[in-house]
């Protein structure tokens, strides 16, 4: 009688099925719980004759093992099915997901930072929404300088009676230099340490957007102030930078120029790395390509920032990252840097 019951349950267990976790739980309760079918068989096992106990006991264990394995299998199948349904999101990007690449401006900025870092320069940063005092006044700009006009600068707020209180989007990262200089003093107003910083960042100018210009771009400016700093020091640093960035055979030349915050000032050209200085369409057949402006920090700038110009001297330089990137990769349209066209960005995967 009990063996027939066991055989009947074995057939049932072999054919068990469930559509969800709730049905699996009902099967567990029916067969494996304290009030289940298998537990009832074990209670009846006490009444089995002694000569049949071994056979019946083996059959009950076989039934219990099969029921446990089958119910566990059904549970796993239901969990997999339900998990797959939850993970299905038709709005997700299809697999495989392609890895991105660094933006070309980021690649070049990091390379510039790395070169100057190896020469002892440290990073400095400042706000993009800045006051006139740090952008223009402490950089020795006259109160009526054209750069303060609406056609050149994005103003957030203006004070007609005091231009130094104007708030604007910074038009160059020289404002970071001003902030660094004014905070490098001890209680007596003495410079606490030599200043050697580079200031990368985004800047804004009210210009028409074309293939050669944009209303925002990126700069990296450098500043070194200490005792006995000379123009020779500036030239050697810029020569080392040019050789690291554009190749060991690169030459430089410095042409006299004018900036309100440096005196003397110069524009720096590098020998054309395409034609080797022989002259080509890229360098307009001159053999030279302009890359940055530089000069010795004007004594007025030092004094306005609280530094004794009779004791300290220094140099500064600044370059546009888009300009350097164009020279390295010959990008024909400046707007491509900000359009987020993945076809363009994929071209720089090998440059990471």
Automatic annotation (TrEMBL):
GO MF terms here are:
ATP binding; magnesium ion binding; phenylalanine-tRNA ligase activity; tRNA binding
Sequence similarity: Belongs to the class-II aminoacyl-tRNA synthetase family. Phe-tRNA synthetase alpha subunit type 1 subfamily.
Pfam families, from UniProt? Phe_tRNA-synt_N (PF02912), tRNA-synt_2d (PF01409)
Phosphoprotein as a keyword?
A: no
List, for all copies, the residue spans of the domain called Aminoacyl-transfer RNA synthetases class-II family profile.
114-327
Look up the record and give one Gene Ontology term from the biological process aspect: phenylalanyl-tRNA aminoacylation
**Catalytic activity from the UniProt record:** tRNA(Phe) + L-phenylalanine + ATP = L-phenylalanyl-tRNA(Phe) + AMP + diphosphate + H(+)
Recorded GO cellular component terms are:
cytoplasm
Native source organism of the sequence = Xylanibacter ruminicola (strain ATCC 19189 / DSM 19721 / CIP 105475 / JCM 8958 / 23) (Prevotella ruminicola)
What cofactor is needed? Mg(2+)
**Lineage, please?**
Bacteria, Pseudomonadati, Bacteroidota, Bacteroidia, Bacteroidales
Enumerate the Gene3D superfamilies for this protein. Bira Bifunctional Protein, Domain 2
Annotated Mg(2+) binding lies at 263
Please describe the quaternary structure of this protein: Tetramer of two alpha and two beta subunits.
Please tell me whether the keyword Lipid metabolism is annotated for this protein. Answer: no
Q: What is its EC number?
A: 6.1.1.20
**Which superkingdom is the protein from?**
Bacteria
Q: Which gene encodes it?
A: pheS
Where do transmembrane segments lie in this chain? none
Cofactor binding mode and count: Binds 2 magnesium ions per tetramer.
**Which protein is depicted?**
Phenylalanine--tRNA ligase alpha subunit
Matching entries from InterPro entries are given as: aa-tRNA-synth_II, aa-tRNA-synth_II/BPL/LPL, Phe-tRNA-synth_IIc_asu, Phe-tRNA_ligase_II_N, Phe_tRNA_ligase_alpha1_bac, Phenylalanyl-tRNA_Synthase, tRNA-bd_arm
């Amino acid at each position: 009688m009990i063996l027939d019951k066991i055989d009947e349950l074995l057939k049932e267990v072999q054919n068990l099925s469930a559509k969800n976790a709730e049905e699996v739980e009902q099967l567990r309760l029916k067969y494996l719980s304290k009030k289940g079918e298998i537990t009832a068989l074990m209670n009846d096992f006490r009444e089995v004759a002694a000569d049949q106990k071994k056979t019946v006991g083996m059959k009950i264990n076989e039934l219990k093992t099969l029921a446990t394995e089958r119910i566990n299998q059904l549970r796993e199948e239901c969990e997999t099915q339900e998990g797959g349904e939850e993970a299905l999101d038709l709005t997700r990007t299809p697999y495989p997901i392609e890895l991105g690449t660094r933006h070309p401006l980021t690649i070049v900025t990091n390379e510039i930072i790395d070169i100057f870092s190896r020469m002892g320069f440290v990073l400095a940063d400042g706000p993009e929404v800045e006051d006139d005092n740090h952008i223009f006044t402490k950089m020795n700009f006259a109160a009526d300088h054209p750069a303060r006009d609406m056609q050149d600068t994005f103003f957030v707020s203006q004070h007609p009676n005091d231009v130094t209180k104007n708030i604007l989007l910074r038009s160059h990262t020289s404002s970071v230099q001003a902030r660094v200089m004014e905070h490098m003093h001890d209680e007596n107003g003495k410079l606490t340490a030599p200043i050697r910083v580079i200031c990368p960042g985004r800047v804004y100018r009210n210009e028409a957007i074309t293939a050669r210009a944009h209303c925002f771009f990126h700069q990296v400016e450098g500043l070194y102030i200490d005792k006995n700093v000379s123009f020779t020091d500036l030239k050697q640093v810029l020569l080392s930078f040019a050789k690291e960035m554009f190749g060991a055979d690169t030459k430089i030349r410095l042409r006299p120029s004018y900036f309100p915050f440096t005196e003397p000032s110069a524009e720096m050209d590098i020998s054309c790395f395409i034609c080797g200085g022989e002259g080509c369409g890229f360098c307009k057949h001159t053999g030279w390509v302009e890359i940055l402006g530089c000069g010795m920090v004007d004594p007025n700038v030092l004094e306005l920032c609280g530094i004794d110009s009779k004791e300290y001297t220094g140099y500064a330089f600044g370059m546009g990252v888009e300009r350097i990137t164009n020279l390295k990769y010959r990008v024909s349209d400046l707007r491509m840097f900000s359009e987020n066209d993945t076809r363009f960005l994929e071209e720089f995967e090998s440059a990471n």
